[in-house]
Amino acid sequence: MPGGAPAIDAELLTVVAAACRDHERLRFTYGTRDGVVGEREVEPLSLVHTGWRWYLVAYDRDRADWRTFRLDRIDGLPVPGFRFPPREPPAADLAAYVSERISAAPYPHQVTLRVSASAAELAARIPPSAGAVEPLDAGTCRLRTGAGDLAAIPGYLAQWDYDFVVEEAPPGLMERLARIAGRFTRAVAES
């Protein structure tokens, strides 16, 4: 479909899914979001589809930590290797884990908000790649998100019809929000 996600080769999905099922290590060439290409050796746990992209949740043996890998960044077909004993997963809900990792990792400016909306309502407006939504109660949720440019955050928040409280913010964000709030208040008063 136009504007859709990158196409993933069925054979790639099959090889990765089989390695997850059979607990077989995978070796593959991977390109990061920064354009760095290198060999990775992982212990695959599960495939997760975000509605937009396929991700592999795997234990990266070289980095000794859990990682998420976009399948469209794997070059060629992974090579299965030795079997391994399964590790304890990094989270009970792998879809939420992937959502949190992909919504926060690419952004240098991180922000956490308490939003006056149900988690389901906000999650319907926020794609998993833009933020991780966590329910707090029936009418309140927490959003962890970020931006590449600090100036983009106020404009993003201004689009909502929800009240929110900033729980964690990068330096300079609160001052920027206060300046913009003052500008809008003056515009309303003088109009």
UniProtKB/TrEMBL annotation:
Which superkingdom heads the taxonomic lineage of this protein's source? Bacteria
Q: Which residues form the WCX domain?
A: 108-183
The UniProt record lists the WYL domain at 11-77
Q: Which residues form the signal peptide?
A: none
**What's the name of the protein?**
WYL domain-containing protein
Query: Taxonomic lineage of this organism?
Result: Bacteria, Bacillati, Actinomycetota, Actinomycetes, Pseudonocardiales
